């Protein structure tokens, strides 16, 4: 297996037209960032995807492009795909100094998807990471984490209320409610006869 990989690497080095270019990948990333800031999500998504296609395997642009594309996907409401790109960014060496961006975005995704257990676990990681955040980002990060904590608490209360409402719901009656006897189905008919002596 390693021999095949070594052969492929040697052939890759000799090939002039392998389609990978750090310079072109950087241009695509820059264009993606500009489009993202202008809220042109589809254009940004395409540019970050192009950056990923063009970047060499060992490029430092790969984790940044995955993270940026996850931000676009989040903005587009494609939360599961955003989570996948966050994982890819981390697996490809996303810088520790920027990690807080992925952590809070991941927690937001889980909250929106209604995955409260994962959101809670992500929030705990966010709290533990607060010491590693740079001083210039610390205040904003602390506010974001506090906001996430409030959202998670509200979601838990809301879920408890929904659960309690489900428990106390009355079953629906076949053919509606009887007009004579409350909480009885109208499919049941009651009649009585007076017997004369």
UniProtKB/TrEMBL annotation:
Cellular component GO terms held in the UniProt record: cytoplasm; nucleus
UniProt keyword terms in alphabetical order: Methyltransferase, S-adenosyl-L-methionine, Transferase
SUPFAM superfamilies linked: TPR-like
One MF term in the entry's GO annotations: histone deacetylase binding
Signal peptide: none
Source superkingdom: Eukaryota
GO biological process: methylation
PANTHER family attached to this UniProt entry: SET AND MYND DOMAIN-CONTAINING PROTEIN 4
Name of the protein: Uncharacterized protein
Source species of the chain: Cherax quadricarinatus
